[in-house]
Amino acid sequence: MSKTRRNNDGGYPTSAESSPTPMKRSRNGSAAGSSSGGGLGSVKLQLSWKKNVEFAGEYFADSKGYYKAAGFSQVELLSGGGSGTSVESGLATGRCWAGLSAPTITAPAVLQGAPLKIVGATFQKNPFAIISLSKNPIESAEDLAGKKIGVQDSNELVWNALLKANGIDEGSVTRVPFQSDPPMLTSGQLDGYVGFVTSGPVRLRMEGHDATHLLLADAGLPLVAETFTVTQETIDNERDKLKAFLTAEIKGWKDAVADPARSAELAATVYGKDQNLDVKEQTEEAKMQNELVVTPDVKANGLFTMTPELIEQNIASLAKAGLTIKAEQLFDLTVLDEVYKADPSLKLS
Question: Where is this region: Disordered (predicted)?
Answer without folding.
Answer: 1-39
